[in-house]
Amino acid sequence: MTQAGDELAVRAGAPGRQGATHFDRVQVIGTLKAALGQGRLTEDEYDVRAGQASAAQTRADLAALIADLPAGSAAARPPTAKDARMGVLVILIAASVLGVLVLCQPDNILAVMVAFLAAATLVVASPITVGLMFDARHQKAVWEAATVAATPQRRPVIVCADR
Fold it and tell me: Among 21, 49, 72, 85, which lies 20 to 30 A Cα-Cα from 112?
């Protein structure tokens, strides 16, 4: 069974010789983020490892940061804004179907069953969608913080013009 860091180690060729790219760092931080979401890392461990990943010079350094995590850690995808938009779409469709059925006041059992299904969808989908919205917003904030931490800071250059 391969470990999560094996791909980086294979790409590194001779361990410690190839420099880590920005993509490699972001990939490792994503794996760490997935492990945090799955409860495999505490927030403190995540912060320490993400900081080490941002400062890592070689791919071997990065592979060591995720070597103890299972290979499937990166497979779990955190919710995105697209997932929340899909939830909103489901709610709108269910509300529309329910509205049409209430306005038409049908007396057949199939229409009543569809209305009941639409109402149940509204009850279940609403809190799930709100949770997805909050979680997607939180994931975006964590991602931006990790990206800012991984980006080297540049000092401003002050140019003085002689008159």
Answer: 85
